């Protein structure tokens, strides 16, 4: 009798766990799949910016075809050179980050990981947040094509305080539409991405200028905008 009750409890527990996992999976898909075709109305980072800073948010959605090809390749050259080829994670860069000399870790997040964080999560280094980031990264990579991942990223990434996306950045910093961004301007935008609230596009520091030149060299090494033609 006791064994029978234990088996019944075990079956109920398995059914409960299975139900919870299915609900979580369906909810996760509902949070990611629609944005393959539709533009997200906002992001977690934008909402947090509105809540904590109460500043003006500048963002306007544009398609990838409305953005100068100089900007996507500059972003890829700066942030994630293996973007066309990986499936969400650059394990070689992760390994280098973990084993880097002098105990100083460099960033190893791909564009897909950064997009998952911007859309759904918050800043931080906790294992729980990183686990959620990895989970949403997999969902995005599985359900979206690479071109769409890059397009959404270019529309939600922060280029300066309250300046989100390529259109707002181009108009705020260069007084022109994103279709007219030059290679030098694109490299400058990419150079501030590690910390756009402290690094400035209109007033670039010596470090930002140096980083910008390095990005331009990396773009040339990759072969220019043609590197992304396969997307």
Distance N to C terminus:
62 Å
User: What would you call the quaternary organization?
Assistant: single chain
Determine Rg (CA atoms, Å): 20 Å
What is the average of the pLDDT values? 89
Low-confidence stretches: 101-106
Identify the CATH class of the largest domain.
Mainly Alpha
Secondary structure: helix percent: 55-70%
Structure, described:
The chain is mainly alpha-helical. The protein has two domains: 1-38; 39-228, Orthogonal Bundle (Penicillin binding protein transpeptidase fold). The chain has helices spanning 2-32, 44-53, 70-79, 91-99, 111-120, 127-143, 146-156, 165-174, 183-191, 206-222, and strands at residues 158-160, 163-164. A two-stranded antiparallel ribbon has the order 1-2. Helix 3 packs parallel to helix 9. The model is unreliable at 101-106 (pLDDT under 50).
What's the short version?
With 231 residues, the protein is mostly helical. 58% of the residues lie in helices and 2% in strands.
Topology of helices and strands:
Layout lengths: L1 H31 L11 H10 L16 H10 L11 H9 L11 H10 L6 H17 L2 H11 L1 E3 L2 E2 H10 L8 H9 L14 H17 L9
Antiparallel strand pairs: 1-2
Salient structural properties:
231 residues, mainly alpha, Penicillin binding protein transpeptidase fold, 2 strands
């Amino acid at each position: 009798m006791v064994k029978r009750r234990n088996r019944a409890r075990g079956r109920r527990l398995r059914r409960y766990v299975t139900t919870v996992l299915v609900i979580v999976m369906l909810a996760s898909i509902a949070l990611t799949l629609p944005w393959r075709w539709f533009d997200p109305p906002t992001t977690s980072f934008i909402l947090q910016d509105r809540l904590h800073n109460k500043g003006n948010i500048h963002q306007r959605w544009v398609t990838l075809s409305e953005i100068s090809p100089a900007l996507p390749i500059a972003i890829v050259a700066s942030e994630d050179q293996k973007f066309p080829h990986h499936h969400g994670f650059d394990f070689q860069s992760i390994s280098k980050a973990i084993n880097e000399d002098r105990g100083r870790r460099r960033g190893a997040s791909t564009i897909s990981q950064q997009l998952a964080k911007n859309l759904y999560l918050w800043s931080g280094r906790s294992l729980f947040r990183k686990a959620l980031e990895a989970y949403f990264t997999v969902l995005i990579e599985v359900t979206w094509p690479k071109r769409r991942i890059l397009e959404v990223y270019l529309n939600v990434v922060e280029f300066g305080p309250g300046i989100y996306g390529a259109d707002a950045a181009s108009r705020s910093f260069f007084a022109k539409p994103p279709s007219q961004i030059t290679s030098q301007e694109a490299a400058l935008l990419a150079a501030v991405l590690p910390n756009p609230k402290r690094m400035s596009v209109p007033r670039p520091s010596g470090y930002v200028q140096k980083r910008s030149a390095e990005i331009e060299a990396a773009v040339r090494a990759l072969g220019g905008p043609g590197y992304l033609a396969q997307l």
